[in-house]
Amino acid sequence: MNVNDDLDKLIENLPFFLQEHLNNHVSKDQLIEIVLDLGRRPEARFISGPEYLSQKIVSWQDIDYITKRISKFSNENRAGIERTLHRISCIRNRQFLINGLTCRVGRAIFGTISVVRDLLESEKSVLILGKPGVGKTTIIREIARVLADEMEKRVVIIDTSNEIAGDSDIPHSGIGRARRMQVAKTELQHQVMIEAVENHMPQVIIIDEIGTELEVLAARTIAEKGVQLVGTTHGNCLENLIKNPPLADLIGGIQYVTLSDDEAKRRGTQKSILERKAYPAFEIIIEINHPNSWTIHEDVKNSIDLLLRGNFTMGQVRQFSFTEKIKIRCQRLQVSSESLLKNRNNLNDSINLVNKNWISINQTKDEKALKLKSKKLIIYPYSLSNNLLKEVLLKMGFKFVLTNEIKKATLIIGLKKHLKLNFKLKNLAKQKNIPIYSLNQVSLYQVTKLVQFISS
User: Which residues form the AAA+ ATPase domain (predicted)?
Assistant: First the structure.
């Protein structure tokens, strides 16, 4: 495992009294960040813990000395050093003068992702979960290099704060042959994500820190276009995503479903239950519990379904070190169902209860019922996820083809509120004698019941 940290380039931009101390420090290679606050002693934070670097307190002149030697601060109060991965963040007072600096050490660590290389080769979308500072950005930087150089994929990095490929217009060598698109403002990240797909034909898109609803929607759109995604977001575990309504759509979205009495008895549950709404945008999730111990969910939709139905899910734990072989073991992860119920009030703001009469069927009177199991279906999905339909139909054992041409379809399935407005589609379907089936809301349960209904 090789490390490229360009630490000397960061140290040479510090005041002289700090340069000498850091250059001679025994734990120099374990440095995480340097904190300089006006009127306080300078502090270094190592993997082992923090320590003061000098008895001298930081002055205005010390802060000014550093800020004049680095790039300009952006609207997010971040700056960098040319051709390095280091990040300098500032704290400002009420007059917008800088009175504090956090100098974060950026490292390109080659060989970190050997433990999950098989997951990258599967060509599935991967989401990395972890607390701030655990090393998510370092991991996706190495993933970008491996995908671009070793697997020869067309990789585009959406580098919002220049943390993945450095502050210079020329990207750092740590990303290999991957291309980098810079984002002018943080709030425009979702637009650049879509632009990357439309203009540059990537096979893989890499996004750091997905955090807003617009970015989640962009990620889902990209996943539907067949592009592999590798992204990061804040959180300790899969349960955190379920409890976070803006991010829940990354794993298919969560909603309350009202079951019939018979269905509730069959399942042995209450009538109102939590259920996954659609197909996850990310098929694999990696939880960074510790720098050397990761929990892997290789089948996210199955993990989410298990978690919502019971109080546990299965996870694969992978452990590694520099001196030992990689260890892989399965582990039953306990999840409190009570903690999910406690968040019901928070989820209600973003999740609507399902109407009991959730299916409406538009068919001509002379139309004969389709025998789904005896025919190969040609389905035209309208405002509906292709992946969700595939998942349901494959599970139920039907032969089917999804088409983009209405004339070739044997039936149309779509969302009622969108079908209502498309008179052209309804007229064409009527002319060709193609039945239309509509759903009030989209969920795994609703699509399953619809397919069961039209096949009976």
Answer: 122-261
